[in-house]
What does this fold into?
Amino acid sequence: MTGLGIDLRDTAGSAVTLELRIFRASVECWVGDNCYAVFDREALRHWLARPGTVLSYEGISWARAGQGVVAITVDGVVPRWPLADHVLDGLRSRI
It folds into this structure.
């Protein structure tokens, strides 16, 4: 298992870290002590390579938010948050 932290902001503007726990076949999405979703690693990798319609499972949604922009939402915690290009590149290379 490898981990990857993504710094986001919650609805109040406070810093929140989304931790992606990357396993051989799955990617778990954690904020603090709560797991919000578990994605099939291959499906997430495929979606990140060519973002299309929203990829959503349990409490996490990945969405194309414009030309080449990907945003993430954590239900009840993080509103739609666009990811910086270098963060998206890092995701693509590690997942």
